[in-house]
Amino acid sequence: MGTDNLFKKRKARKTRDLKRKTENKAPYGRVLIVCEGSKTEPGYFKDLRDYYQLKTANIEICGEECDSSPSKVLQYAEQLYHEEKNVGNPFDRVYCVFDKDTHTTYTSTVDAINRKREKNKWFAITSIPSFEYWVLLHFFASTKPYQPLPGNSAANQLLSELLTYLPEYSKDQKGLFIQLVPQLEFAKQNAIRLLKAAEVNGTDNPSTRVHELVEYLQNLNRPH
Q: What is the pTM of this model?
């Protein structure tokens, strides 16, 4: 009897939560963003969501809930995607945000996302070597490959370079998106141009696709 009551309570709570989410949703698409980082990336996209006045019921952002490896990011995204689909509140798009850095599951995770049957729903938003490359592009269009050195990883080298432009930067910095808004269009143009150049040269180092997600979110709530 107790178990039955608990099941009924859980089902009723899920029904209430779904009703609340449905009532609060805007008419544009519902998007899931799962980030490798627990602070920098989720904070950045939450600030972006607020800046463009996007509904939290439409744009769900996760980071600290999953492990920092690309494969765990995808695994957690798949779990949430199927949970919401099963209760009748599906996501229209899923973005997995992760770095290459030294992750051993990077290539296999990108391949797994690219092999998804729903190609218009699943997207890998990658940065090489790390998310900080996207931040750096707000100041400088760096084309220098970042290679690991003894005792100095590629990500650490990039961070050192970024600190010359943004001395106060840290992984738990709050308000990063707002601080960088004045240079946002400059960063997007840099990212587009340098990604094309990297592809022509048969490399991905350095490059980022963060601008693709930023651009999508910017246009989500605009009248068409």
A: 0.89
